[in-house]
Specification:
binds (4S)-2,6-dioxohexahydropyrimidine-4-carboxylic acid; alpha/beta
Length: 432
């Protein structure tokens, strides 16, 4: 089966060019095909940009165990709509992904249910280092150095030394210092209003844990990725970190701050917490100067009923996969960054960080995971349009300019202007 994408402005790593892209059997086979090339399917894309599919390296899809919030089918369908063609999912499901059997089971369910490509982290516990050493079908190891949703936590130094010292897979971590968080919570009597969340999970908690993890990575010469950086202090610290370290920012930490609690309440309650306007600016500066390489969502759906509980019972997390690309394209239209930078942060860098084979770039021999975007399209984000099972978004009512309009996974259109091709299935990502 051959598909020709004709007339788009194609965003390559080093240039943007008006060329025709030829796909055969799921792979890109020609990046400069003649306009009259014979193909089974011709996609006329004049006026649109073509970018590599987004790789979201941090999502929580709740399958198994908490599928009333999301499952692998609904989560991956939301990805297809948002221009995400590969997701890497976190281990804090029920049961958690802390054994090889649990990992294999997730992969089998995903092959059946997922409309985009997938990968799953193996979760660290204080005593599963042998599992972490033998895991193969995974991008890497996830450590909750600070606790969040679920019960995964490794904060004992001896256990962390073993994990960094004895394993080979790249490691990523949720970095919030447990004892700082507990001391802050105690001082505030547990907290009574949602804005207390940012005082409990404060700047210091994030910085201490990030410094601790980076120290472990450096001493053990281990590849390490700092998930969801949220503070100016972490950006400053990471600016001079070694080549072993990469880092990530999320749309909610880039675009929300403590001033949004009044309007949005627990809808913007996240771990790490949202911080101050100066932190928003520092995170953008970190992306622009290369200190932070990746943008990912930390998509973490909870139902509105769960969110409506009073703080601190309200759970932390917000859904984002179907809007993350549009949110950042809107910033391109505001002049904050370029389309090529977005492709670097959301496509190329995550493929590089996790050594994913044949993804993240438009190049001959790469997988035909592709997204057509319309940089002129203005559209309001509305709860009623969300396809995540949780059915809401903290960006309800916001108008964004610049939207994904068509998504291809392995050369097949999975989403086109509001219509899904329910028969498309993604495949398991593989790693070098
Ligand atoms: O707010 C969060 N929610 N942060 C995390 O790291 C986990 C996530 C979840 O799974 O709900």
């Amino acid at each position: 089966m051959k598909t020709l994408i004709r007339g788009a402005d194609v965003v390559f790593s080093d240039r943007v060019a008006a060329v025709n892209i030829l796909i055969e059997d799921g792979s890109i086979i020609d990046c400069d095909a003649a306009a009259d090339t014979q193909a089974d399917e011709i996609i006329d894309a004049a006026g649109l940009y073509l970018i590599p599919g987004v790789i979201d390296d941090q999502v929580h899809f709740r399958d198994p165990g908490l599928t009333h919030k999301e499952d692998l089918h609904t989560g991956s369908r939301a990805c297809a709509k948002g221009g995400i063609t590969t997701f890497l999912e976190m281990p804090n499901t029920k049961p958690p992904t802390i054994t090889l059997d649990a990992l294999d089971e997730k992969l089998a369910v995903a092959a059946d249910k997922c409309m985009v490509n997938f990968g799953f982290y193996i979760g660290a516990t204080p005593d599963n280092v042998e599992v972490l050493k033998s895991a193969r079908r995974t991008p890497g190891i996830k450590i909750f150095i600070g606790s969040s949703t679920g019960n995964l936590l490794v904060d004992q130094q001896a256990a962390l030394e073993r994990i960094f010292g004895e394993t080979d897979l790249p490691i990523c971590a949720h970095c919030e210092d447990e004892s700082t968080v507990h001391a802050n919570a105690e001082r505030l009597g547990g907290g009574s209003k949602v804005s207390d969340h940012s005082l409990i999970r404060d700047h210091k908690a994030a910085l201490i844990a990030t410094q601790r993890a980076v120290d472990l990575a450096d001493r053990h010469n281990h590849r390490f990725h700092v998930l969801h950086v949220s503070t100016a202090e972490e950006v400053e610290f990471l600016r001079t970190s070694s080549d072993l370290i990469t880092a990530e920012a999320c749309p909610h930490h880039l675009l929300f701050n403590v001033n949004d609690y009044d309007r949005l309440g627990s809808l913007v309650q996240m771990n790490p917490s949202i911080k101050n306007p100066e932190d928003n600016s520092a995170l953008w500066a970190g992306l622009l100067d290369g200190t932070i390489q990746v943008i990912a969502t930390d998509h973490a759906p909870h139902t509105l009923e769960e969110k409506a509980q009073p703080y601190p019972q309200s759970p932390s997390g917000l859904p984002a996969v179907e809007n993350s690309l549009a949110l950042i394209l809107n910033e391109v239209n505001q002049g904050r960054c370029s389309l090529q930078q977005v492709v670097s942060w959301m496509c190329e860098a995550p493929a590089k960080v996790w050594s994913i084979n044949k993804k993240g770039r438009i190049a001959t021999g790469y997988d035909a995971d592709l997204v057509l975007i319309d940089m002129n399209r203005e559209q309001q984000v509305l709860n009623e349009d969300q396809v995540t099972k949780s059915g809401w978004t903290p960006w309800h009512g916001v108008t964004l300019k610049g939207w994904p309009v068509r998504t291809l996974v392995g050369g097949r259109t999975v989403y086109n202007n509001g219509t899904f091709n329910e028969s498309v299935r993604g495949t398991e990502a593989t790693y070098r």
